[in-house]
Write a structure and sequence with these properties.
The chain has four helices and four strands. The chain is α+β, with helices and mostly antiparallel strands. A four-stranded mixed sheet has the order 2-1-3-4, with helices on both faces.
Length: 120
């Protein structure tokens, strides 16, 4: 599944993450119609991650979980290039910050969950 370019709302979700569950509940509470992509099972490609960074308005390192052990294990640092970080994130999707809600040309990280409300 590619990231949508229309007005479809997609939740990039990790059900084991409390913030991800809270963001899902918030979307449901607001009556939003959305699709869920379990990104750990269906990882984003490097191109999708690059596109996601543009929608978030952030450099790759700014939507990467830099404190995950896998970040250092991949030989990455906060000074690594976007290409290096995106390649690692595509290979090891746990490195992607979560949850992320995508709608049209915009996206938001649900930390806190209310940060996704402007997309609705």
């Amino acid at each position: 599944m590619a990231l949508p370019t229309d007005d479809t709302i997609v939740l990039l979700h990790n059900p084991r993450c409390s913030k991800s569950r809270a963001t899902r509940a918030l979307l449901e509470e607001k009556g939003a119609s959305f699709e869920t992509r379990l990104y750990l099972e269906d990882p984003l490609t490097e191109d999708e991650l690059r596109d996601l960074g543009k929608r978030l308005g952030r450099a790759a390192v700014d939507f990467t979980r830099t404190k995950q052990a896998e970040f250092a294990e991949a030989g990455l640092s906060k000074d690594s290039s976007d290409d290096e970080i995106l390649a690692a994130m595509a290979k090891t999707p746990i490195l992607m910050e979560r949850p992320v809600v995508v709608r049209g040309a915009r996206a938001a990280i649900g930390r806190p969950p209310e940060d996704v409300l402007p997309l609705l």
